[in-house]
């Protein structure tokens, strides 16, 4: 049975679900009781992505407030206790959740922004990784990589050959396509101990999410590259891994997001449609298969320096 209490969001009292659970996470991350008192619900906007839900960062950009669908709402009520128990171990990459509330018939979650959003941050690389052909490079040396999809209903260009025939594509599509290829194939070089810990965390998280029956989640990775003598940015409660190699210090931030999608009838239909056409490995597969595929892919991506070629590191440009 869900329990609701009142919580201050933007000076308005809203109903929070099962807040005794989320209070544990807020305490662990030293989140102030009034952390949303100045948040303006009118700041919610539609961002990129397939879900079509509204979201907005708090003024300090440390937290993300996100509207969730009715399906995700049921998933949240069903799995919150299990997910939070995993997060509380301190050995999870699942993005911390601080609040689950309802307002005017719509439902929202509040989570940590897993990547620092300071104005001075320039990302060497930023990735959205699913362990399949939906992997993406989001940012490359401070420049956003814009999503340019090929669609069969785009009659003004070639759908099938546009990634292999130069005259059939645009520079933006080529950059996006090469970024996806790079994201799918690249390895991340860390110390042996860091690689072992990251793989252990990902494997444990994937096991839990597979058993929970959810899929389509991503590992977000942001990498700052700086000189060896520059001061390291604060972790500030995020998963941070620092590794020095070749005269550079690489600061990794990472977290698993979008972990509420269950294996619905819509997903099952999409899987049937995509199976004969889409490149493998597929993104729309049953939860346990997704979990196994996700864990296996990430296990292959994180390499201790002693077990991988230096040229496999993320320093390679595209």
UniProtKB/TrEMBL annotation:
The keyword Hydrolase does not apply. Pfam families: PIP5K. Residues 1-302 form the PIPK domain. Transmembrane segments: none annotated. PROSITE patterns: PIPK. One of its GO terms (cellular component) is plasma membrane. InterPro entries: PInositol-4-P-4/5-kinase_C_sf, PInositol-4-P-4/5-kinase_core, PInositol-4-P-5-kinase_N, PInositol-4/5-P-5/4-kinase. Keywords: ATP-binding, Kinase, Nucleotide-binding, Transferase. The keyword Nucleotide-binding applies. It comes from Diacronema lutheri (Unicellular marine alga). GO terms for biological process: phosphatidylinositol phosphate biosynthetic process. This is PIPK domain-containing protein. Coiled coil: none annotated. The lineage of its organism: Eukaryota, Haptista, Haptophyta, Pavlovophyceae, Pavlovales. Gene3D superfamilies: 2-Layer Sandwich, Phosphatidylinositol Phosphate Kinase II Beta. One of its GO terms (molecular function) is ATP binding.
